[in-house]
Amino acid sequence: MPTFCIRLEGHLDPDWAAWLGVAQLTHRPDGTTTLKGEVPDQAALFGLLIKIRDLGIPLIGLKRLDESNPPI
Predict the structure, then answer these.
(1) φ and ψ at 21, to 5 degrees?
(2) Which domain of life is it from (predicted)?
(3) Within 13 Å, how many C-alpha atoms sit on residue 51's CB side?
């Protein structure tokens, strides 16, 4: 299953991690939040992005991770 890293503007409350279905939610010193987790397929990825959109949180970046790609 591919792992994705999503960077969002602002500090998202950690309680949202379970609802979004991500394994890791990290607040960064620059005022952004990084979400990291496995996504089973493209439909699930679009579902996750729709949830983020519906919360009104600006998306800064999205990256598929593998051993050669560090988080954004």
Answers:
(1) 80, 30
(2) Bacteria
(3) 15
Quick check: 57 and 19 in contact, CB under 8 A? no
Taking the domains of the chain in order of start, what are their residue ranges?
3-65
CA distances from 68 to 44, 46, 58, 65 (A): 23, 24, 27, 8
DSSP 68: T
For the domain bounded by 3-65, which CATH number is listed? 3.30.70
d(CA 67, CA 14): 26
DSSP string, 13-62: -TTHHHHHT-SEEEE-TTSEEEEEEE--SHHHHHHHHHHHHHHTPPEEEE
The predicted-structure confidence for 26-71, as pLDDT tens digits, reads as follows 999 999 999 999 999 999 999 999 999 999 999 999 999 976 666 6
